[in-house]
Amino acid sequence: MDTKLRKVMQKEEEQEEKEEEEEEEEEEEEEEEEEEEEEEEEEEEEEEEEEEEEEEEEEEEQSTKKKQEEQKENKNKKKNKNKKKKNNEKNTSRNKKNQKKKNKKKN
Questions:
Q1: CA 46 to CA 50: how far, in whole Å?
Q2: Rg (the chain; Cα; Å)
Q3: pLDDT computed for residue 1 by the predictor
Q4: pLDDT of residue 101
Q5: How far apart, in whole angstroms, are the C-alpha atoms of residue 18 and residue 53?
Q6: Rounded to whole angstroms, how far apart are CA atoms 70 and 98?
Q7: C-alpha to C-alpha distance for 9 and 12, rounded to whole angstroms
Q8: Nearest-angstrom CA–CA distance, 87 and 80
């Protein structure tokens, strides 16, 4: 009887140990899954941040290019305006000279 009882107790003990091991394994698996999920989330966040930074940089570049083009355009406009003004002055001066010559010839 004593051996039977021992065997039964030993079996119960083994069963308990087995259950405990299974529980521990399950807990470990859950922890690993949670860690993996957290890592994935972190990676996604990092990717999103990188994308946002790239977009901001691109927008900044576009803005800078646009400003440079506007400055160039304004410079060209000013240059053309000055050129036109000089030409007008030259023409006016030439016209005055020609008018004087005509007036002298008439006299």
A1: 6
A2: 46
A3: 65
A4: 85
A5: 52
A6: 41
A7: 5
A8: 10
Q: Token pair for residue 15?
A: 């069963």
Alpha-carbon gap, residue 46 to 60, rounded angstroms: 21
- Copy the structure tokens of residue 70: 């506007």
For 43-76, write each residue's pLDDT tens digit: 999 999 999 999 999 999 999 999 999 999 999 9
Which pair of tokens denotes residue 63? 């803005």
Q: What is the DSSP letter of 73?
A: H
Look at the chain and count its residues: 107
Three-class secondary structure assignment of the chain: CHHHHHHHHHHHHHHHHHHHHHHHHHHHHHHHHHHHHHHHHHHHHHHHHHHHHHHHHHHHHHHHHHHHHHHHHHHHHHHHHHHHHHHHHHHHHHHHHHHHHHHHHHC
Distance CA 62, CA 74 (A): 18
